[in-house]
């Protein structure tokens, strides 16, 4: 639920903050809905306001300018381009006091008493503001809305008629996937796209790392939305719905709430935290997003009307899907099941979740077989400069090598073989570590970074904690330190798929940062430095000699 106070009425703060607030959830009726259309009123969500700006601490509606209904409702470039169901709802306010009217998305007309109709303002995303003050008990109005219907087959089909990566993987596995007709209109970006991608410059980089790990290898905004929603709803990831949360820094910091297991409210909270967090992660993954404040579907009364209560107050996320428009996603794991996920609402005939973690594409095969040695007869004869005449060296010419040359060449070849074996051994060991990581062993990623740092002459201090080491090296290493610490020292040794993906992403980013910190000569020297492939007893002996 959302923050609210009940003093004979219920009002809602139109700003969703990543912060602790008291949550008042009651059964007070805030409005009643009557509808006689093909879409049942007890299946509709009702929105108050859409929030498009995140300043690092809270979401809000930036400059919520409103226009005259005569000039149009929702901005055409935001409108849903897929199939819709038109529904008419009569809404009667009970205890709600708000300057924004609850309506089903997306409204296209509103009628009622002159006091209501003559005092309306429309935002470009369809929110309706009552400029006559605040809503009041008995206030009644009728809204015609066009309810979006998600055509999964269409969204999952690209312009060339091929399925997007997740659904292609499902089809290849034998799942009953339907290929649809590609959308007639593709709008890669919504109106004023920067509004829905902007993030603070000082946003903790671990948030970006987490977003990229969750959406790794996914091809479309729709697939990324399903993966992000699943990330929050999967019990294995440790998210818990609760309005009883402790005050502390973890409540006010997005990265701490998402990533730091020692945060007072780590992955525990209510809809404000969940919606705000998913919207930020979506933007970090390159998907246009916004947060919506409104109400989940209400309860049907015996006379057919639907009552929406204070406890239905909710916040969710909408992502821009180029094939259709704004699609709702709900990351909050509410205990009352009042908010089904988009994934559940799709009604797919198979479970798509296993396919939301796609493997890395195979690396191109390289022919590693050695070239056949050149034969002496393959070389052409050539004249000896200054020898006079046309004398040539041929295979049968009596030419003798110096006696010392074969020995020198042999020694050089042996030295080359030894030196050349160093990077080969390192490559083999690195490959083993990467296989362990893919199998879920996060310690392999940590070992890889420690080895790289040691090769570069910056061996981590073994007396420091992983978090302290990461703080000394680079912020991109911090997500790996967090999941490694949890896997090593936490109560549960098995890492989740999301944690493994985060470790992979953090390893990749840290490696990239290290490549820019050191010169080419330093990196080349690190390639041939043998210390990390020497036996442990040899390294300890060398360390004692150095200290002595």
Would you give an account of this structure?
By secondary structure, the protein is an alpha+beta fold. The protein has 2 domains: about 5-355, no CATH class; about 420-545, no CATH class. Helices cover about 30% and strands about 20% of the residues. The chain has a 6-stranded antiparallel sheet. A hairpin with a 3-residue loop joins strand 20 (about 315-320) and strand 21. Helix 4 crosses helix 8, helix 5 (about 220-235) runs antiparallel to helix 8 (about 270-285) and helix 11 (about 445-455) runs parallel beside helix 14 (about 495-515). The longest helix has about 35 residues, at about 405-440. The radius of gyration is 32 Å and the shape is elongated. The model is unreliable at about 1-10, about 15-25, about 245-250, about 380 and about 535-540 (pLDDT under 50).
Number of strands: 23
Spatial order of the strands in the main sheet? Answer: 11-14-8-4-19-18
Rounded average pLDDT? 80
Fraction of residues in β-strands: 15-25%
- Unreliable stretches: 1-8, 17-23, 247-252, 378-382, 536-540
Helix content: 25-40%
DSSP helix count? 16
- Overall spatial form: elongated
């Amino acid at each position: 639920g959302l923050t609210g106070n009940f003093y004979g009425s219920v009002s809602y703060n139109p700003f969703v903050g990543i912060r602790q607030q008291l949550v008042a959830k009651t059964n007070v009726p805030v409005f009643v809905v009557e509808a006689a259309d093909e879409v049942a009123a007890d299946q509709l969500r009702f929105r108050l306001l859409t929030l498009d700006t995140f300043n690092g601490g809270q979401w809000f509606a930036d400059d919520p300018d409103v226009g005259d209904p005569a000039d149009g409702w929702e901005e055409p470039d935001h409108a849903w381009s897929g199939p819709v169901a038109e529904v008419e709802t009569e809404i009667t306010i009970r205890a709600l006091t708000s300057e924004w009217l609850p309506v089903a998305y997306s409204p296209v007309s509103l009628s009622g008493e002159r006091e209501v109709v003559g005092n309306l303002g429309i935002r470009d995303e369809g929110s309706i503001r009552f400029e006559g003050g605040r809503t009041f008990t008995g206030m009644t109005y009728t809204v015609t809305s066009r309810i979006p219907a998600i055509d999964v087959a269409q969204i999952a089909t690209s312009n060339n008629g091929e399925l997007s990566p997740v659904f292609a993987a499902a089809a290849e596995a034998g799942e009953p996937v339907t290929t649809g007709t590609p959308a007639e209109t593709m709008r890669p970006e919504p109106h004023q796209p920067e509004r829905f991608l902007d993030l603070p410059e000082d946003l903790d980089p671990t948030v970006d790392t987490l977003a990229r790990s969750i959406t790794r290898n996914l091809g479309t905004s729709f697939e990324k939305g399903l993966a992000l929603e699943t990330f929050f709803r999967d019990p294995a990831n440790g998210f818990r719905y609760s309005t009883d949360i402790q005050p502390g820094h973890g409540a006010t910091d997005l990265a701490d709430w998402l990533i730091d297991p020692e945060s007072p409210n780590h992955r525990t909270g209510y809809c404000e935290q969940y919606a705000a967090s998913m919207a930020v992660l979506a933007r970090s993954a390159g998907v246009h997003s916004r947060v919506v404040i409104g109400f989940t579907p209400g309860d049907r009364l015996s006379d057919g009307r639907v009552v929406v209560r204070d406890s239905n107050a909710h916040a969710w996320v909408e992502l821009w899907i180029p094939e259709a428009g704004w699609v709702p996603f709900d990351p909050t794991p509410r205990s009352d099941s009042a908010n089904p996920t988009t994934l559940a609402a799709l009604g797919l005939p198979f479970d798509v979740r296993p396919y939301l973690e796609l493997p890395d594409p195979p690396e191109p095969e390289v022919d590693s077989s050695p070239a056949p040695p050149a034969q002496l007869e393959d070389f052409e004869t050539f004249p000896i400069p200054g020898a006079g005449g046309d004398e040539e060296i041929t295979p049968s010419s009596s030419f003798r090598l110096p006696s010392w040359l074969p020995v020198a060449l042999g020694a050089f070849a042996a030295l080359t073989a030894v030196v050349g074996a160093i990077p080969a051994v390192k490559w083999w060991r690195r490959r083993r570590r990467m296989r362990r990581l893919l199998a879920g062993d996060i310690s392999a990623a940590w070992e890889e970074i420690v080895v790289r740092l040691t090769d570069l002459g910056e061996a981590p201090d073994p007396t420091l904690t992983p978090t302290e080491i990461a703080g000394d090296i680079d912020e991109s290493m911090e997500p790996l330190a967090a999941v490694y610490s949890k896997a090593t020292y936490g109560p549960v040794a098995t890492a989740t798929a999301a944690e493994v993906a985060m470790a992979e992403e953090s390893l990749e980013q840290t490696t990239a940062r290290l490549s820019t910190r050191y010169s080419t000569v330093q990196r080349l020297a690190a390639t041939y430095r043998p210390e990390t492939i020497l036996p442990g007893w040899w390294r300890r002996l060398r360390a004692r000699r150095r200290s002595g």
